[in-house]
Amino acid sequence: MIFEMDPKAFELAKRIVELDLQRDAIFEQLIQLIGDRAYEVLRSVQNRI
User: Is the pLDDT of residue 2 over 80?
Assistant: First the structure.
C-alpha cells in the first residue's frame, strides 16, 4: 500500500522499528548471560516499572 505519510509519523515509525531491533539485540545478550531465566527476569523487571 503506497500512501502519503506525514514526515513526523514516518520518523516516529522508523524510531519504533529501530528501538525494536535494539531491544531484540539486548534481549539476546540477556539470554546469553542467564539463559532461559531471561524471560522470567524481564517480566519481573517490567512488572516493577
Answer: no
Q: What gap in Å lies between CA 22 and CA 14, rounded to an integer?
A: 12
Quick check: 1 pLDDT over 90? Answer: no
Give the cell for residue 47: 512488572
Q: Domain limits of the chain?
A: 7-47
pTM of the model: 0.76
Check: CB of residue 47 under 8 Å from CB of residue 35: no
